[in-house]
# Entry
Amino acid sequence: MSAHGPASHQVSVSLRRPLVYGALIVALAAAVVASLALGAVKVPVSVVIDTLLGKEVTGPERQIVETLRLPRTAEALAVGAALGVAGAILQGALANPLASPDVIGVTGGAGFGAILIIILFPGSIALLPIGALAFGLFAAALVFAIAWSGANRGSTGKVILAGIAVLSLFTAGTTGLLAAYPEKAPSAIFFIAGGLTSSGWEEMQAIWPYFAVGFVAAALLIRPLDRLALGDDVAASLGSRPHLIRLGAAIAAALLAAASAAIAGLVGFLGLVVPHVVRMAGGTSSHTFVVPASALGGAALLAAADTLARTLRAPIEMPVGPFMAILGVPLFLWLLRKVV
Amino acid sequence: MSPAPIQAAPAQLEAERVEVEIGGAPILRGADLSLECGELVAVVGPNGAGKSTFVRAISGLQPFSAGAVRWSGRVLPGLRGRELARLRAFVPQRMPVPSGVLVREAVTIGRSSHLRPLRRLQGEDRKAIEAALERAGVGAFAERPLTTLSGGELQRVQIAIGLAQEAPVLIADEPTSQLDLGAAVGIATLLRGLADEGLAVLLVVHDLALATAVADRVVVVAEGKTVATGSPTEVLTSERLAEIWGADARLTAEEGRTALQVAWLPGGVRAA
# Structure
């Protein structure tokens, strides 16, 4: 009754995932080299590689790569990977293809926190990442407190409805503040559109623990999420508590997305779309594949888009968010048309 | 090649006067059950009687408000998830089917309660997964995606996922209710065979002829209570079928074949 399982199909299934991994790693390496070499000043690739290997390189090029572009590239990789992973684990945990860090309130809260800092403490812009992080996590905590209490606690519908409601609340707060203080709008635009800055290692030094905890938690959640994909009953048969898996995934995603917003503002789209792209390309929704592949894909996409955003009209830097959409949407639509 | 037997420690299940309330409404109002290794027990009863709620409660999937459930002598609310996963496997009626996941991967997920976080599969895990695939009869299509399977094949995969847990008790909630005749016969043969090999099998089932054929004992649940327990032919009498199901019907069993003879229409004849 199974003799018709075509052999070619089996081959493509077993080869497809390594192929996608290989393509993602090549794309990531290319994006990193481009990100380090390109900009207002072009640095030859050989100099970039020598600098990375710690070889003797003299002149301003070394300084440009080491103190300006390396931290920025690291930020792009961390934020891209974090948003990709956050989207992947949220879509898995909530069994909803539309899930992204937006639906647990993080982006709404982070935006509000950043605008609050811009208006209240215009002199200390260094506080902006902290404001975004704190309010991003606060908004997520609000969603969790509502969604994981009472009847049906932790059910998918309840989480998404609470998330959308909290998101609306904070978005209203953000637009309200901007309407009341229109003169602050220009400085807020860059944060809202989402973009990286060449500001050295300072932000990463403050924010990296949140990334670290988020990534470790996501790695630990891969197996529980695969169980959950076979339904709450199978997960419970295997000794898991479905609503706790969902809570863990939501907390990990909140940490990753809030830390990302602190570094790069509101980079939308990536968290929603990258997991879908790797699922379609890999032909599987297994989290063992989708979570690491989303990390690679998100990192490559953001590093590439950031390079474009600061080279196309150099020395003017444009926010990376729109560029990422320009790069990613055609690819996504092409896959959507082909696969689904 | 004969498949390796499913390894399992001896175990026992006892449930006494279990009561369940959902949203303040009493669903189960005192249900009892016992189950031993090598035994297949079928839970039968009308729609809404509380059969599924009963097996979900004793499986630890549904909190109960009163009563006692002991797994190998250990009280249920005190068991951690991972311990419970090694005592019983619960096979739902129909699981969601994630895209692109292969049969072998799904059965591997069934092994995950034996794995430490982030640890890879060990030799014994691979053996258990192979044994589960073979025993459930899904080895031949182990590399196919779940989305390409028929209902009967998918039900076998669900049972394989349960077998990979290597728990001594397998609980299946209406595994045949959406299957065609041939597929249902296959599942019945599989479950009876597992019991003969030493597993304790608990089956929620609507088909009384099937229950009579495969079960050592049947437990009749009606209006949230167990009303009878015993061998199928003793318990499922015409009087009881009339009393509990409100149907004029008779179970017959001869030469290994069972049948439910039903008067589908009043008086057994169509109006002219």
About this structure: DSSP finds 13 helices and no strands in chain A.
